[in-house]
Structures are given as C-alpha cells and as structure tokens.
Amino acid sequence: MEQVQVEIANVLSCFNCNLNLTGYRYILRDEKPFCIKCYEQLFANRCEECKEPIGTDFKDLSYKDRHWHEKCFNCVQCKTSLVDRPFACKDDKTYCPDCHDNNFALRCDACTNIFRAGMKKYEFKGKQFHEECFCCKVCRQPIGVKTFIPRDQEAVCVPCYEEQYAQRCIKCNGVINKGGITYKGTPWHRECFTCNGCNKMLVGEKFTSRDEKPYCADCFAEHFAKRCIRCTKPITGLGSTKFISFDERHWHNDCFQCYKCNTSLVGRGFLVSGQDVLCPDCGRA
User: Fold this and answer.
1) Alpha helices in the chain (DSSP H)
2) CB 146 within 8 A of CB 135
3) What is the pTM (predicted TM-score) of this model?
C-alpha cells in the first residue's frame, strides 16, 4: 500500500487543474507545470486588435506593454502588415509610415506636400518649407543656406534685392549696403558724397550747394562767392562771416575801412571818392 502512494505522488500534473501531464505539452511558470489550456487562460496576453488570447502556438508581438497576434499587427488605415516593418503610433493606433505621414506629418506651406523623415525643413514668418520650395520671391531659385532679405512677408535673395529694391547711390549708381547718407532726398555712398570741384569728401565737413551740386567751402568761395574789393579774397557767407555791400561792391566787415586812415567804417557814415571809401574826416580834408 505504501508503494502505490509514492508512485501517485510522483505523477506530473497541471498545477491548476491537476490534469496528468504525462505525454502532454506543458509550460513551467515559477517552476510550476501548467497544461497549455490553463496556461493560456491564466497567463497569455490578449491581442489589442481581436481581443483574443495569444496562444502558445502564435507569435506574441509587443510594443509598449501592448500585444498583437502576428496576423493582427496591421496598419489601422490601410491594413498592411506591420510585421518586420517600420511603424508609428498615434492615439494608441498603429500606422504604416505612409499612412502616418499622410494623416499627421507637417506639410510644406508652398507645395502642401508632407515632410518625410530626413527632409530639411526651413521656417520663415511662421511658415514651413521644403528645401526646394523655399525660394526667392523674384527669381524663384531655392535660397538654401544663402543670405536673404525679407520683403512683403516673402524672402528675396541678395542679388535680386539689390537689383530691384536696394537704394542706389545717385553718383555711381552702386547699391548702398551700409553707411549711406541722404542729401536733398537723394541717397549717396559716404565716399561718393564729394565736392563737385575738388572731389574732397564732404562727410563731416562744412559745404554748400550750387545748381543742386555740393561744394566744399573753399571751392564754392573760389568759383561762386563775391570778392572783397579791398583784399580780393572771397566772401563765403559761411558760418558767422559778415560783409558790407554798396553800389555792387563788397567788403569783409574787417576790410570796410577808410582807405586813408584805416578807421573802421562799419556802422558809421562814409564818403565815396572814386573806388575808395573814406571816413568823413578824411573825405573833407
């Protein structure tokens, strides 16, 4: 009797249902044997798609604690199998790359096509462009990594901007990139704003104009200023220079003196003797 009890105790049986496992497949879990049916009922993962257990005879495909039968692991939209293929998830749904991109990928604001993986993306004024779609407003050539200038909410490459929009120097007609000046509403390069007589640069210098052309003080005086009849030097009128005019003759204030005694006649009466001016005392002598 004792010998029979030992043999029964050594029979391999399912830990859950006590089924005799002799001659049957079984699975060990935590070192305990389970028949296939009990194992699948107790431990098998359920497929996200069909909700059925994933039995031991099927592959269990998993992603982020979610499981699928091999036959159920498909794109939710086009039903293409995703086994051994790239895929993407959105809102707990699996998509093939094409369906994911068509539904969710960013699109180019120029051509409306999507940005696929590895494509360069250019952003400008809150819009996004493919590399080949981010073009100059004027010549329609891709800008790429070249410098550009915004114009009317669009990008313009530097050559086109200089050709069509940039200020040009009134003297040389060259583009003014920086350091330009404006005189009487017209733009100049600093180095082009020169005296019309001697070509001296006038930036930071006193100058005046004649017939809309700028002249330094020396050239203006030499070519256009009245001349003092006493010293024959120009009367420029620049700064605080004062002069006296009488009978189409002109004098510097300091030169308006009696021709005999050299007394200043500024603010005093005087007499004229030919080309000379005399103080009253010398005129009566």
Assistant:
1) 2-9, 36-43, 97-104, 158-164, 217-223, 280-284
2) no
3) 0.44
